[in-house]
Amino acid sequence: MPGRLRARFSRSDQLTERPDFALVGVLRVPQEQTSPGFAIARRIGYAFAALILAVLLVYLDRDGYRDSQGSELSLLDCIYYATVSLSTTGYGDITPFTPQARLINILVITPLRVFFLIVLVGTTLSALTESSRQAFKIQRWRRRVRNHTVVIGYGTKGRTAVDAMLGDGVPPSEIVVVDTDPVVLESAAGQGLVTVQGSATKSDVLRLAGVQHAAAVIVAANRDDTAVLVTLSAREIAPRAKIVAAIRESENTHLLRQSGADSVVISSETAGRLLGIATTTPNVVEMIEDLLTPEAGFAIAERDVDPSEVGGSPRHLKDIVLAVVRDGRMWRIGSPEVDALEANDKLLYIRLVGSPPGAMRG
Prior knowledge:
Elements: H1 2-12, E1 27-28, H2 36-60, E2 65-67, H3 75-87, E3 94-96, H4 99-120, H5 122-144, E4 149-152, H6 156-167, E5 175-179, H7 182-190, E6 194-197, H8 203-208, E7 216-219, H9 224-237, E8 242-247, H10 253-259, E9 263-266, H11 267-280, H12 282-292, E10 298-304, E11 320-326, E12 329-332, E13 346-352
Parallel strand pairs: 4-5, 4-7, 5-6, 7-8, 8-9
Antiparallel strand pairs: 1-6, 2-3, 10-13, 11-12, 11-13
């Protein structure tokens, strides 16, 4: 018996095995924001629609109602009866007396009364409504998410990586941020990103973020040992995903490579090189910053080789080509292996931000 209880609690602790409503607050899917005035106006519209429907039903069956004086109902009496019936339990001065009218009251007027009251006190139920909507969005998102990018850590590196992707035109809905800090996740949700609260060192959190279906994983942890552990877990879950990891010390590069990272960025040494260059050639640093800034200026882009370029040298193209990617390997310009372009090659070149591929030609 104790073993069975432990197993049940162990299973319930797995995020991916929880029902969708239990993930509200852990997994957050952004939704369209509406103004309070619009939300209130929409609720008032629902209330009036229910009232008009009730008036119409009572008026069409007005022969089945009598007031306290035994008179038939006028249109004004029908409006009065519908208003009183929907907002209260009624005063008894107008009553249905035929079986048909009573049946309509049971099957239609009473449900409309409940709906009317729910609409009027909708602010009280808004928390439950929001939770239900979020649970439904989580269910739909988990079923459909594919080929997205998971960003582990939303500190300076993670935010900058997300800004770069958004600047390159990646839709916010295709980016998932994983972090333990609810404050930074709130900031990410404000940009329209899907967020998961939890430690990415746990494979269950990575699965909840959809790493198993992701096209790329960016590991922007604050510690190198955390980055290694996250990379190991992510590579085990997603063997085909492209994993890019950032570390502080170059001596840990081989650990990231062995853990399954496709690319490793050394943040501290890169910053140190730029600081050193800035003391003697600040214009070089300014140009590098321009290349890394997605909003304006120049940017490094990738494109396929045009059929007219096959067989030619990348050094003779109109574009400023930096490297050629062939069979998954990058060759710098000047390498004899890529002196003649092939049909399946890709070019890394410099382009103006906001310009289509090849806009700098000619």
